Amino acid sequence: MNERLIRSELVDLKENKLGPVLTDFSIQKTQLALGDKIKFEFKAVDDTHVGFFYATFSSVDKPTTKINIKAQNSKNVDDLPEFQKFSINSNNAYERSIPLIIDGELITGRYILQNISLSDANATKNPTLNNETVYNSNANNVDNMNFFNNLDQSASELNIEIPILDNSLRLPIINERESNATLDLANSVLPGNLIKGSVWPNGEDWFKFDVQSSGTIIAQLDMGNRSANLDLYGPNKSKILSEEVSKAEMVHFKTSDPGEYYLLVSNGSYNNSPYELLLDIV
């Protein structure tokens, strides 16, 4: 092998160890409501492959409440189910619309962009360890820090309203019908309807709904100043996930399996604890 070819391979190897470099990032819609998705676009320079994208937004009023975005390139070899997918659009930018998912207590108000990161990993089970590039106000790389700090305010803030906590919300209301204390007696409910009920300590309220196609199931439970458990069950009647909700929180599950799913509200912290339950499929 001649010296020029060896030198070329060494240069390629060095370049392939560099993570993606952002040149543009924007949020296409900053006012979000029930059923909306966060649509973002970004452009990056990368000699290998922009495999994964992450972004985190934090609530101004309660920074521990966050919106976490996780997406992977649609051309990745492996399809990791916990990731949404992004792809190139007609403007030669990466684009993706992702369901509005809140981690932590549901807080209405302003959410500020806290962190962006990208990885050039192609179909890896541990993408953050592969040539990750991080953008935030404390980034180790000065260029990355400056890029983040210079983002337009309209792109670096989300002003969102969590509909279930909005007293002016106008949605069809479904009142819980007793007895729905077992899965076989579950009330039928529809996405986009506000379900009102009450639950006792050791009590159970079951609801069922149909999923027609792949999507993300989102359930928001508002217990006021009380607490209860919120569980999601799949078509095979087995539990998929469980959350102990204090005040108001959200559970979510991405599925490609159509069928009948179930929500269970149980174990209210006080006798006859009132609640509001909002179901959405996006």
Give the helix/strand layout.
Elements: H1 3-16, E1 21-27, E2 31-32, E3 37-45, E4 52-59, E5 66-73, E6 84-88, E7 94-99, E8 102-103, E9 109-119, E10 132-135, H2 142-149, H3 153-156, E11 157-160, E12 173-175, E13 187-188, E14 194-199, E15 204-211, E16 215-233, E17 239-255, E18 259-266, E19 273-281
Walk me through this protein's architecture.
The protein is mainly beta. It has two domains: 19-161, Immunoglobulin-like; 164-281, Jelly Rolls. The chain has three helices and 19 strands. It has helices spanning 3-16, 142-149, 153-156; strands at residues 21-27, 31-32, 37-45, 52-59, 66-73, 84-88, 94-99, 102-103, 109-119, 132-135, 157-160, 173-175, 187-188, 194-199, 204-211, 215-233, 239-255, 259-266, 273-281. Strands 1, 2, 3, 4, 5, 6, 7, 8, 9, 10 and 11 form an eleven-stranded mixed sheet that branches. Strands 12, 13, 14, 15, 16, 17, 18 and 19 form an eight-stranded mixed sheet that branches. It is elongated.
